[in-house]
Amino acid sequence: MTTEASRGHFSSRIGFIMAAAGSAVGLGNVWGFPTKVAENGGAAFILMYLAMVFVLAFPMLVAELTIGRYGQGNPVTSLRRVWRNNRFAPIVFGALALLAASLILSFYSIVAGWLVAFAAEPLATAVGADGLAAWLTEFSQPRNVIMTLLFSLMTIWVVSKGVADGIEKWSTRLMPILFVLFAGMIIYILMQEGAMDGLRVYLVPDFSHLNGRLIVDAMGQAFFSLSLGVGSMMVYGSYLKKDINLPKVATQVAIIDTSVAFAAGLLIIPAMFVAKHNGVEIFNAAGELISSGDLVFQVLPSMFHTMGSSGPVIAVVFFVLMVIAALTSSISILEVPVACAQDELGMSRQASSWLIGLLIAVASVVICLNFGALFGLVIDISTVYMQPLLGIIWAVVVGWVWHRNELLKELQQGNPEIADGWFWKIWPWYVRFICPVAIVAVMFVSIS
Ligand code: TRP
To answer: Is residue 20 in contact with ligand 1, taking CB distance under 6 Å?
Structure first.
């Protein structure tokens, strides 16, 4: 087992925030969130989502980071340190987290592969390779498999490089560029004809859409977007120095993540209506917004086409940055089983990155080859059910298993006054009672 001294650490607080925000900001924000907003009729979903982030996901984010920093490791190792008198629970629940992480990465790489394809398409068009350009943007098994494998290799490569060198460097440099580009694109789209209709759908809530499915979708989306449940944040927490104020960095990460999701919706939903104005079909026969998984991939290219000669350039920059955003997330997922193999089995980072990364890539290929049957199913199992269930487990660990004094001691290291503040008065009690009950209640609502 590695000791604390020999583990990699983030070299700065800002480096950690960028890396954790890099984990949180990804396809969940730019693909998942706008798709779910469209599916659930707009602003009502956003309100429910905001409630879920701050009422449920944020306290769980603090919980996961705290367990990770205290336990100094992957879910199995960390649980073992916290749950000392139980030999089986850490292995069973830790393994469940690893399984969920692997399932999530297997579908994540497929969607990210589409981004790679869309980043390459304008280049293919520019050099006159029209056949290739069409192949890249049309849904097909060979394209899905090849692009998925390409993206999986990128993930494995970065993870095999380690913490400060790979993960931190990439996240810190590239995240800010993404924010600026987003701002520019939002301004552009809001100036187009039709955008205001989209803005209305996005911002004016229609509560007739409120139903069980919307509520459970909002919770799942909040857990997914903050990378909760499977141990991503736990492992990142374990690379965090002891003098960092955990509730504070968690707040910053949650705010960054939510802002990016909101910005992505502010871009995509109006862009749908601009596309409609330009003759693209965005409503189905029943008058509902078309919201299949490739919504984003239809709407954005049609926006770039309206941009004249700068369109292809902006398209390339945008999709490349999206691939990078996806990469800073996917590495935080692969990092979970890799850290576990290192800590528990004593494998080298190199070997475990390649072995586990390739196994998950095989799973991705299996999903590609049985897309209709497996893609949605794997997403549902891992994000709608496993993530919240694992959330309950972490809440129980922090609220019931872990001794309150030790919990306080861990949090005090980066925040000596915490015992006197409101956070400590509310949070432990909150994670103990409210979080598990609320998660169970939401899941119950979705089933009934
Ligand atoms: N949160 C990331 C996104 O929004 C994806 C992600 C990274 C994730 N690590 C995770 C999702 C762990 C669930 C669990 O794209």
So the answer is: no
pLDDT over 80 (residue 172): no
Side-chain half-sphere CA neighbours of 382 within 13 A: 23
Q: 61 C-alpha to center of ligand 1: Å? A: 12
| Residue 307 φ/ψ, nearest 5 degrees | -90, 10
User: Which of 329, 387, 389, 394 is the best mutation target for the ligand 1 pocket, counting ligand atoms within 8 Å of the beta carbon and taking the most?
Assistant: 329
Q: Are 261 and 178 in contact (CB under 8 A)?
A: no
Q: Of 97, 100, 48, 53, nearest to 445 (Cα)? A: 48
For 365-396, write each residue's pLDDT tens digit.
999 999 999 999 999 899 988 999 999 999 99
C-alpha separations of 423 from 255, 256, 397, 426, 435 in Å: 17, 20, 19, 5, 15
Atom index in ligand 1 nearest the CA of residue 28 equals 4
pLDDT in tens, 334-360: 999 999 999 899 999 999 999 999 999
Fold classification of 13-447 (topology level): Amino acid/polyamine transporter I (1.20.1740)
Domain ranges of the chain: 13-447
